[in-house]
UniProtKB/TrEMBL annotation:
Protein name, per record: RNA-binding protein KhpA
Family membership noted in the UniProt record: Belongs to the KhpA RNA-binding protein family.
Entry keyword ATP-binding: no
The entry's keywords: Cytoplasm, RNA-binding
Superkingdom assignment: Bacteria
GO cellular component terms, semicolon-separated: cytoplasm
Any one Gene Ontology molecular-function term assigned to this protein's record: RNA binding
Amino acid sequence: MLAQAVEHLIKNIVDFPDDVSVKSHENARGELIRVRVNPEDIGRVIGRNGRTANAIRTVVQALSDHKVRVDIMDVRR
């Protein structure tokens, strides 16, 4: 559910929504959600001084009942 929420949020703020990929993994420290976006959209997703990325992380943590980490990467990696 969290990965779908992150995907929905990010696809609505980027210029290339088809390049958005969201994958969720469980590990010992909690859940890890990896988000890949087009290199041209990375600035839009991170935002000025990381404000947009922090807002996404805050929303995800509010929806969750456990520890969740959100990593944002571009598709070149």
